[in-house]
Amino acid sequence: MYETSYHRPSSLAEATQLAAEKGDEAKYLSGGMTLIPTMKQRLAAPEALIDLRHVGELKGISVNGRSIRIGGGTTHAEVATNEEIKSVCPGFAALAGLIGDPAVRHMGTVGGSVANFDPAADYPAALLALGGTIHTDKREIPADEFFQGLFETALDEGEIVTAVSFDAPDQCAYEKFRNPASRYAMCGVFVAKRADGVKVGVTGAGASGAFRWSDGEQALSGNFAPEAVDGLTVPEGDMVSDIHGSSAYRANLVKVVTKRAVKKAHSH
Amino acid sequence: MGVEGIGAKVLRKEDRRFITGRGRYVDDMSVPGMKYAAFVRSPHAHAKINGIDTSAAEAMPGVIGILNGQQLQGDGIGNLICGWAVNSKDGTPMKMGAWPALASQTVRYVGQAVAIVVADTQAKARDAAEAVVIDYEELPVVTKAVEALKDGAPQLHPEAPGNLIFDWELGDKAATDEAFSKAAHVTKLHIHNNRLVPNPMEPRAALGLYDPAEDHYTCWTTSQNPHVARLVMSAFYNVAPEHKLRVIAPDVGGGFGSKIYIYPEEIVCLWASKRTGVPVKWTSDRTEAFLTDAHGRDHETDVELALDADNRILGLKVETTANLGAYMSLFSSSVPTYLYATLLSGQYDIPAIHANVKAVYTNTVPVDAYRGAGRPEATYVIERTMETAARELGISPAEFRRKNFIRSFPHQTPVIMNYDAGDFEACLNAGMEAADVSGFEGRRAEAKSRGKLRGLGMSCYIEACGIAPSKAVGSLGAGVGLWESAEVRVNPVGTIEILTGSHSHGQGHETTFAQLVAERFGLPVDNVQVIHGDTDKVQFGMGTYGSRSGAVGMSAIHKALDKVEAKAKKIAAHVLEADEGDIVIENGEVKVAGTDKKLGWHEVCLGAYTGHNLPDGMEPGLKEGAFYDPTNFTFPAGCYICEVEVDPETGTTEIIQFVAADDFGRVINPMIVEGQVHGGLAQGIGQAILESTHYDDSGQLTTASYMDYAMPRAWDLPNFKVSTTETLCPGNPLGMKGCGEAGAIGSPPAVINAITDAIGNNDLTMPATPEKVWKALNAVR
Ligand SMILES: Cc1cc2nc3c(=O)[nH]c(=O)nc-3n(C[C@H](O)[C@H](O)[C@H](O)COP(=O)(O)OP(=O)(O)OC[C@H]3O[C@@H](n4cnc5c(N)ncnc54)[C@H](O)[C@@H]3O)c2cc1C
Questions:
Q1: CA-based Rg of chain B, rounded to a whole angstrom?
Q2: Which residues form the FAD-binding PCMH-type domain (chain A) (predicted)?
Q3: B633 contacts B546 by C-beta, under 8 angstroms
């Protein structure tokens, strides 16, 4: 790790002010589960770390009826074990429980994950399928507009993810097919069904990050059953191909994993 | 036997410090004035070095010194060597290319050390290492052994034209050809044995300390064999004379073979300590471990098995190409030859065998012994072939094996090994019963109703351990003898120190070895201290690998205990005025048999040291040493049966059940033995379905972290069903065979035989990742 300086703001205003002072040499630090390993491998060398873990505005989960708002500083473990989320939107809580391992879940945060937008991160699939909103210190951005490409989001320099919010659907579930090495998703699918249709968010498989599988959404909106996607083919060209799986294999996974997510949604 | 003697499941004494985080590893060591090293490593798989510019790095804060290969060679430090001479079949010696500890002219794999930076802190050393500018001229790269042998392939070493290190054979070719000419059926298979990265939990580390006052060196190193490290560093690398070099391997967190070898880093840290005048510590990070720890396996093999009309084996032909990486590591030549082809007879009576092995240089990390070393490769070849032959013939794989088992011992195979004892059928029967093989078809049908494909695969392995009779290995080219030494020091109060040349790096020696004393004298294991891993304390030893610490290391202790017992009896007989032959030692008491005359063990020991009442002419003290040289290899064997369920939609394999029925000879501590089997099985299953070492075309190791290299985790594994049968090894006094490697040796073919059975396609390579299984399934559905 290169030498860096550490800063601990206690409010959002202080954090953004620090960020403005330090400019593009600074990075926010949340759980550090992505940033610290990257720094240890000398792939990132921020001169200043602005620790968001003591910023009160980023904490907390609120559930009003079927509306859920999760502060950016909430850990995956808090999401996974929150009784209200579990009762209103069990698929989302279950997803958080599948992230990494216990250590990662107790450190890593929703805000850090969303801001980082790893092509295999789990939350983006859910937020796309749920039509969620990403709240920042400046604005609110719909998930469809927030997630833009590999590690690319709508965030401006120094902008902080303060929360994510969404309304719980009638039925939902997340199914994750893991990369055997990293245990990230090789293909993760979140399905969400509402009266006006079904949305399908896919992570880990797409060549440009998480995406909505529109053919799947159409088919499932007509018939929310696993076999509804049987006749579909997923275009291989849009899939990642790497040492862990070819695009053909991932295209197959998108279908299979979607079917399993639908099946699971019926059992939640 | 006492409650803690042979056969008792004594809890591991060493676990108190390991589990509470109080182990003392090399990286925990600290000496006054100690500084930190970072190595400048090649980012290229093959390149010429046109220049090294250290000026910017030297000017950085905290930098004490930067040293390179020219300086190293200038100081007379020798090249790394392979210590086992193997000749090609035409009689020419193996062709070893030069491997300087710091490259000065050419780099041949990504990660090869080029320079060392010594600085105040590890971070500063790493910063400065990055600032060293090296002018590389890239050269063409080859990473696959089969490619490296082709005309026009990039050439690695001028000493080895065509990248061929040796072209070696074993067995009788004419007799084998003759056997094939009579065959009613021939089974042919191409087999790929995947390259593995050892991944011990503790990464390698070295701390070099030069003391100018005494002109003496101390090296703390993560070694499985500190004495061999000292010998090689002094006799071959000229780092320091043997009597001026102390090597300490304290607690070591796993090795699996990868810590047998003497690597550039410990040589360079010692040398750099003298050059810079400060103690120098280096600790590998995980990426460096992937890039520089010797890898394992990496064979391509064509095999043919000839059978007569009655399905008896007539002959076996094997052609193997072994990738040894960019340089010949310490024992690399022995792995694909004398540790591999000598086991190709498996558990079967095979009248004629011929094996041809080509060892090849490539632009990859050097390959050497890794848990099993050659024997997993042999077992995979035989057991995949046996299963395949049975399927081709439509006969039961178990019955086919049974028919061809060796049944009388000793048995001379056509490939050097002489099996001393065994009961292969007992293991097969135990395995089949534990696995409920007869109920398998029912389970397969039930799985099918859930949309899953069940498969059953077996593997009947044999291996050679208790490595090894010195004379035999000497005649086969080994540069060292493979005996073991021990010293038993009895203190005046009767407690005992065992000094052993074996090295424990996870095996539980501190417990198992102490159990020998508990057995012998009825003393509690807590009264015994096992001392190892320090060349100043233990006079000499050959270390731990090849499952030798039990059969060889404990035999040496056994011999030393014989001498201690004899002397103690003499003293007691003298004091008790009895006949020496009537003295028995049990439960910590030294008695005259059949009388109530006795002494406490501690009284005898004290008497030995006061010398007040010893037989005339007896030297005082109670301390005895022994060297033990085995008379033969030992031959653990067993039957492993794996049952899997494949998800046809994703190709995912779940190991539903794994049965290991082993014959390890006498078992000293069944709990520790079971743990060894569990660990070995995890590694073997890891090789079979998870672990893939991948180089891209430019020679970059693209699986150099746990993000990309899949290690077996608890959830990949079922609860193992482990059992042992005991046919005692006639070759050593304890009847032990060894258990450290069996799990990793026997399991890969069982897993692949099970998966191929499930999917109905035999064309599948390790690791059988979900995608590969899915593709293999698609090819037949
Ligand atoms: C072993 C391991 C396994 C993992 N497995 C999974 C998995 O299966 N699925 C998965 O989804 N993830 C996985 N992760 C990643 C984990 O979920 C991370 O916690 C997450 O991606 C980043 O969150 P963090 O809070 O740790 O962010 P950090 O690492 O602290 O930061 C990540 C990036 O986001 C920025 N950032 C942080 N917080 C904010 C904010 N509030 N606003 C704006 N920018 C911010 C930082 O500057 C940095 O660039 C794994 C990580 C590890 C180490």
A1: 27
A2: 1-171
A3: no
Q: What is the CA radius of gyration of chain A?
A: 18
pTM of the model: 0.97
Q: A172-214 pLDDT, tens per residue?
A: 999 999 999 999 999 999 999 999 999 999 999 999 999 999 9
**CB contact at 8 A, A128 and A117:** no
Q: How far is the CA of A214 from the centre of ligand 1 (A)?
A: 27
Q: Which residues of A touch B127 (CB under 8 A)?
A: 2-3
Here the CATH number for the domain that contains residue B264 is 3.90.1170.50
Could you tell me the pLDDT band of residue A268, with boundaries at 50, 70 and 90? Answer: confident
Confirm whether B496 is domain-assigned.
Answer: yes
B775 vs A contacts (CB less than 8 Å): 249
> Does the distance separating the beta carbons of B650 and A177 come in below 8 Å?
yes
Please judge whether A181 and B702 are an interchain contact, meaning their C-beta atoms are less than 8 angstroms apart: no
Per-residue model confidence as pLDDT tens digits over A41-92: 999 999 999 999 999 999 999 999 999 999 999 999 999 999 999 999 999 9
Same domain, B274 and B156: no
Spell out the domains of chain A, with CATH numbers in brackets.
Answer: 5-51 (3.30.43.10), 56-117+125-167 (3.30.465.10), 171-267 (3.30.390.50)
Chain A interface mutation, best of B195, B769, B772, highest count of A Cβ atoms under 10 Å? B769
Please check whether residue A231 touches B, CB under 8 A. no
- Say if the Cβ atoms of B708 and A181 lie within 8 Å: yes
**Distance (Å) from the C-alpha of residue B708 to the closest C-alpha of chain A?**
5
pLDDT above 70 covers a percentage of chain B that reads: 100
Looking at the domain assignment, is residue B111 inside a domain? yes
Residue A30 sits at φ, ψ, to 5 deg, of -110, -105
> Are B39 and B265 spatial neighbours (Cβ–Cβ below 8 Å)?
yes
φ/ψ (deg, to 5) at B746: -85, -20
Q: Give the number of other CB atoms < 10 A from CB of residue B654.
A: 14
